[in-house]
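Open question from group meeting: does this chain pack into something compact, or does most of it stay loose? Before anyone orders reagents, we agreed to write out a predicted structure and look at it together. Recording both the input and the output here so the notebook holds the full record.
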Amino acid sequence: MSEDDTPPGFGDEADAFIAEATEGELAALKAETVALKEQILRYAAEAENTKRRAEREANDARAYAIQKFARDLLGVADNLSRALAHEPTDVADPTVKNFVLGVEMTEKELQAAFERNGLKRILPAPGDKFDPHQHQAMLEQPGTDYAPGRVVEVMQPGYELLGRLVRPAMVAVAAKVAGAEAGKANGAGPNPYAAEEDPDAGGSVDRRA
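Structure tokens returned:
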């Protein structure tokens, strides 16, 4: 049958069928493309998460690797600090003076080495607010000029390694005062380590000291 013998309307129906089939295939291809793009994005996100997790675990591994070594060195730093706290001030013997100077230089160099390796000393000043995340209250000291819960004295400095607490600073804190006395103290406010006043603080007082 020649084109001239094609029944009326048959060619239009064929063209419509082909067009419809083409549109269906195009829609299927578009849907498949969208699905592939979503899959690629999901795989990329998973790969990025895996990379970040690996980096975080590697950093944690490095930090933990030196944490025990750093903790062992804290005893050395404590002994040097105690020695310097009792250094003689009225000795004229040059040998003794040179010895004290050597201890001072050793202590400074040790602290500098700590700093270079991310180990920072926690040494609150008298009057600073008690921080239960970095301080450990060893005793309450009444009759001070500081507000309740303020640091009165540092008994032993604390340390943190790369933002992670290695040892809290052991401190004495100002005891609670009653009534109007609390309002007269510097920076008066609630006792931050007392459970009845701040149950979420997480700090504790060692009353055995």
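Observations to bring back to the group:
Confidence is low (pLDDT under 50) at residues 179-189, 194-209.
The first helix runs from residue 10 to 85.
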